[in-house]
Amino acid sequence: MADKKLTFEILASRDFRLMLFARMLALSALQAQGVIIGWQIYVLTRDPFLLGLAGLMEAIPAITAALYAGHVVDNSRPQRVYLLCLIGLTCTAAMLFVIGSGIVTLETTLFLVLAYAAIFISGLARAFIMPASFALIAQKVPRKDIPAASAWMSSGFQMAVIVAPALAGIIYGGYGAFAAWTIPVAMLAASVLMMAGIKAEKYIPKEKRERTVESIKAGWQFLVKSPVLLGAMSLDMLAVLFGGAIALLPAFAAEILHIGSEGLGILRAAPAMGAVVISLFMAVRPMKVIKVTTMLWVVAGFGVSMIGFGVSEIFWLSVLCLAASGMFDSVSMVIRHTLVQIMTPDDMRGRVSSVNSMFVISSNEIGAFESGALAKLIGLVQSVVIGGVGTLIVTAGAALLWPDMRKTVIHVADHEQKKD
Asked: Is the overall model pTM greater than 0.70, yes or no?
């Protein structure tokens, strides 16, 4: 019972609550935005490759700027960086509102160019927002509460993924594009206000700032010497890179399941329906012992779930498979985030988390491009099934190539005692 009380006490912190809800609103906005723009692109073009291209357009700036972003975060105020990123995302959402809500009428080609430009800018903001968020959590949460804080953040993420896509799909189907596009703009504006309300930490500039190249190199050297961290990041990246199918959901909704924009919103929300149950459980009962073998098993479960989704032609079964994939992915995410938080020195949090963000973005956005390109070549169902099989192969390979991952067991309390 004492552990349960401790995990809820985190929510007594005003700054943590503001950070949690600001992040939740921003993620909700991006999820809603993804449903709307994905549906509009597919309705206009009927081309799964262009759905995947949207992911690539976000991945390019996010990956190329990630290492520099980590250096910036480690040498500045994470809260300020986070706030500027949210303002940038609000501006891009407003741009998408103008071109996608019907206020102006554009030719398909011009609409796609402007939409991809807005997605590109969003990707640039994401490069900075992820390490800023990581570093800000470390400033606001005691080390002993990191596992619980990671689970609460994961729960907030999953709740955003449940509510926002379904809400966007329903409103788009019932009230049109104008009403739907107001959702991400309003949510991002609210997240800006919440982030601005967090008490700023006292900032002490470093007497001698590292050069950018040397700073980035130091971050990579730390990771190379930490095979468990690097292995966990790599496993998650490759698994989702091959097994993810979120970018193809508009095509599955239209061509396989025949369920329209409302059904698409439910499909987008389905992974989080499963994930939020697990995340909330781990928030109330945080892991005291981190077994990396658990991550191997849940990643394999993710691959099996995606194979099931790929072959399903029944709506409720597709929802169940996606929900199961979310449950497995959520456990993997909490383990990875906890490992990164407790094993990373304070002065390297921005750089290490920027590498982590590169891996996450690579898996999600480049995975979306891979899914779209493969679907164009061999078909929707075949691309998802092959991707799920690829995830199982990657998991087996990780178990064989990284024996340290199979053997690693971390007792959080013991580790914190050494760190503190």
From this structure: no
